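Input C-alpha cells:
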C-alpha cells in the first residue's frame, strides 16, 4: 500500500496476510502453520526483525530457530522477504511490499522502515562500472535518519 504523502514510498506491515499465503503453494511449498506464522510476523512488523524476534512474536506452537532460518532463506529466494545486514552486523528480515527495485529508509531511533522505489543511482553506477571495469549486476542501499514521529520528538 502506498503512503498518501509520497509517491513510491511503501510502509511495511499494512498489507493483509491472506494475499501472501497462496504464494506458498505456487512455489511448491506446503502451507504449514509455521510458514504462515513467519509470514504473518513479517507482514505485521514495521521494521526488520531478527530470527529471534520473529520467534518471539510467533503465536501458538513455535518451530525451532533452524526451521525459521530455513524458511526465511526460501522466502528470500522467492522474493517474499529481504535480508538486511544491520549496522550492528546482525541479519534482519523484512517483508517488502514492492516487488520492483527499491531501497529502504530506516529510523535510527525507533527502527521503523519504509521502502522507496526511487533509485537515481543508474548514472553513478554506470560511471563506477566504466572506471573500475566491473559489470555491476545489482546493488543494495540502506539510508538512515529520523522518521517523522522521532524527528518531532527530537525537535528537528
Amino acid at each position: 500500500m502506498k503512503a498518501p504523502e509520497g509517491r513510491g514510498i511503501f510502509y511495511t506491515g499494512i498489507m493483509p496476510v491472506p494475499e501472501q499465503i497462496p504464494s506458498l503453494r505456487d512455489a511448491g511449498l506446503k502451507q504449514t502453520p509455521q510458514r504462515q506464522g513467519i509470514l504473518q510476523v513479517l507482514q505485521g512488523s514495521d521494521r526488520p526483525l531478527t530470527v529471534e524476534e520473529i520467534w518471539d512474536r510467533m503465536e501458538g506452537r513455535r518451530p525451532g530457530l533452524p526451521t525459521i532460518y530455513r524458511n526465511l532463506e526460501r522466502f528470500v529466494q522467492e522474493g517474499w522477504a529481504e535480508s538486511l545486514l544491520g549496522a550492528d552486523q546482525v541479519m534482519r528480515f523484512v517483508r517488502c511490499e514492492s516487488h520492483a527495485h527499491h531501497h529502504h529508509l530506516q529510523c535510527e531511533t525507533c527502527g521503523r522502515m519504509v521502502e522507496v522505489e526511487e533509485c537515481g543511482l543508474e548514472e553513478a553506477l554506470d560511471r563506477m562500472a566504466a572506471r573500475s571495469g566491473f559489470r555491476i549486476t545489482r546493488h543494495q542501499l540502506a539510508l538512515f535518519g529520523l522518521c517523522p514521529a522521532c524527528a518531532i520528538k527530537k525537535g528537528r
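The CA atoms of residues 73 and 149 lie 33 Å apart. Residues 9-153 form a domain with the Arc Repressor Mutant, subunit A fold (CATH 1.10.10.10).
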